[in-house]
Amino acid sequence: MTTREKGLWAAVIILTVSVTALGGLIMLRGLAKPGDISKDDGDHTVAEIGQEGISEEQWVAELKKRYGANTLLQMLNRKAVQAETKRLGIKVTQDDLQQVLEQESRGYASAQAYFEEMQQQFGLGPVDLRNEAEYRIGLEKIATQGIQIKEAEIDEYWKQHPEEFTAGKQIKLAALYVPKVEEAEALLERVKQGERFDALVQEFSGQPFGKNTSGQLGWVDEYDPFQPEAIMKAARELSSGDVAGPISVNDGYAVIYVQDIRLKASPDKEQIRQQIRRSLALAQAAPLEDVEKSLRDKYGARILSDKGVPSASL
Prior knowledge:
Elements: H1 3-31, E1 45-49, E2 52-55, H2 56-88, H3 94-104, H4 111-122, H5 126-143, H6 151-160, E3 169-178, H7 181-192, H8 197-204, E4 208-209, E5 212-213, E6 215-221, H9 229-236, E7 243-249, E8 252-263, H10 269-284, H11 288-298
Antiparallel strand pairs: 1-2, 3-6, 3-8, 4-5, 7-8
Helix pairs in contact: 1-2, 2-5, 2-11, 3-5, 6-10
GO molecular function: peptidyl-prolyl cis-trans isomerase activity
EC number: 5.2.1.8
Enzyme class: isomerase
């Protein structure tokens, strides 16, 4: 998988989180007993802190504001893709899913480690990831329907881009995040004076800063899209046992420690050829966002207002 494709997959994961969030709400509402919420009770409390409560109405409004439009659009996309794959007789096979899993988990110690990372960072379990992969594969097969890639084209691409298929490496990382550059410099100085980075990680572990939390990051791919690019760029230039910082991330700074480095296993030749064939076909196809829109139009997708009146076109 190329760095660009990894970035796209990261975006897909974020969108899947929003679908899962609202999906969970729908499930909870569906499980509610008829007597649990009165028809007139718009202030049904779903959470409390001290003497203050959060009503279901507030909860739903916040979820809709944050995720509503994208989630609804993605749900319509799934329906349209499902209808089109059925019409065309397109099947997503176990081999298709296994190949995607191997590509996505290649930057991790194992498939299990990949699942654990997705669960920890995004709250997505194996079933969620499988469903997203199945949707993405189906959409790509629709987009590339009828596109033929010659073996010579695959050979030429491989010859021109050998760096995309080299083994690459994984880096075992630990990181400390602080809000001020002076604090990062002080941490770096403590390491230079002989303090163990592991001890500092223990001291700062669990202290969140922005979207990041100090601690052991474990084995990560050298181009891992789920880590700040500034962190990975610095890590790629280090050797095992090196410490670097301060590194500007978000609104703060990081100090990182490369604990170890190892080479990744290379995919076999047939997997590489299949990957190139897929990439070349997608390059010739319409952008996937355009395919999704054309399918929504084809199957008459529309979003209704609260009163059931069609809103602006999709």
